[in-house]
Amino acid sequence: MNHVEAKNDINKLRPTVLTRAYTGKPARGIQTAITDFFRASENKEKVILPWQIQSQLVLPLCKFAAETKQVDFMQLWAGQNYARCENQSAAAIVNQVIEQARDVLKY
To answer: Which of 3, 17, 45, 58 has the least C-beta neighbours within 10 A?
Structure first.
């Protein structure tokens, strides 16, 4: 399963969390076993390593997870409203924004 399949499987939608588990810097992603593991200790000193060190530390695990389709160990970056996203091209999104802007400017 990849991130698109995970997003589209309504039975597997998970909340997003703010985590430093993958990179050492705060970022919002879909809750996984890795974010759960680090959550209790994220604010303690020296549990989460500085940016590039933490990133390099978890990189092999994330690569293996992607290769073996183990979603619970992947880096799944997403905003709070990811469940409402639609699968469409960038061109379709830009056209939609243009149409919405035209509608607003009519008033």
So the answer is: 45
- The pLDDT tens digits of the residues spanning 27-85 come to 999 999 999 988 877 766 667 888 889 999 999 999 999 899 888 898 988 888 887 87
pTM of the model: 0.69
Of residues 30, 27, 24, 26, the one with CA closest to residue 57: 24
Write down how long the chain is: 107
Q: Are 51 and 24 in contact (CB under 8 A)?
A: yes
DSSP 13-64: ---EEEE-TTTSS-EEEE--HHHHHHHTTTTSTTTSPPHHHHHHHHHHHHHH
CA distance 62 to 60: 5
